[in-house]
Amino acid sequence: MFKDKINVQAIGTLKISDKETGTVLVDKRNAIHPGNMAYIMASALGGKPASVNSSGSSPYINWMAFGNGGSSSTTTISYRSPRVFTTYDGLPITSSNSTLYSKTYQQEVVSTVYAPGEDMGGGNLVPENTSKVNFKVEMSHDDYEAMQQLSDPSITTPATDSSTDTNSVTAFTFDEIGLLAGGSTPTGMDETKTLMVTHVTFHPVLLSANRTIVVDYTITVQLS
């Protein structure tokens, strides 16, 4: 039957794991920013640039940002609410409330799009009327360290989870992630031309030298 109206649903899931051991460190759903996501999808479909990057190309999700402001702990751990809103405020992450609480690092993603009916591996078939986009990052110790050293040259990657270097452990611990649609420069992301489209907070995870962390962030888009 022909439909002149469809319902669109976007669901985000996050999995953080140890590359060597396969241990899953975080596995949870994330919050989609309805205002920004709707605008980014419409701009991409129309082949038009976003308002925050009016001279650029049509937007797509190309960066993953990490921060350390997503939780707090005294005797128990508590999580701050994801900063997602129904409205599109038209502001880049440098001046919008739609940004991480405390961004410490960002890295470009490797993305894979799966079509309806396609096997994602291990017989995991994408349902009909559904597509999935996987955004993957294998976190770079060197790049993360270089970004921290911009503000504190003494910061180095902690050797293990039991490192006694408090400053380094704090600098390399993250508890929030956002997917970003952003402008890029030869040296990295242009924050003045970037929008956050998802945000998730979770228990703190340490990127230590003896652990390679892999982040799989999947967005499922379903029409019905």
List keywords for this structure.
224 residues, mainly beta, 9-stranded antiparallel sheet, two-stranded antiparallel ribbon, 11 strands, 42% strand, globular
Write the layout of secondary structure elements.
Layout: E1 8-18, E2 24-32, H1 34-46, E3 63-67, E4 71-73, E5 77-79, E6 103-108, E7 110-114, E8 130-138, H2 141-149, H3 166-171, E9 173-185, E10 188-206, E11 213-223
Antiparallel strand pairs: 1-2, 1-11, 2-10, 3-6, 3-9, 4-5, 7-8, 8-11, 9-10
Number of helices: 3
SSE run: EEHEEEEEEHHEEE
Percent of residues in helical segments? 10-25%
Taking strands numbered 1, 2, ... along the chain, how are they ordered across the largest sheet?
6-3-9-10-2-1-11-8-7
State the oligomer: single chain
Structural class: mainly beta
Q: What is the percentage of strand-forming residues?
A: 35-45%
Q: Determine Rg (CA atoms, Å).
A: 18 Å
| Poorly predicted ranges | none
Main beta sheet:
9 strands, antiparallel
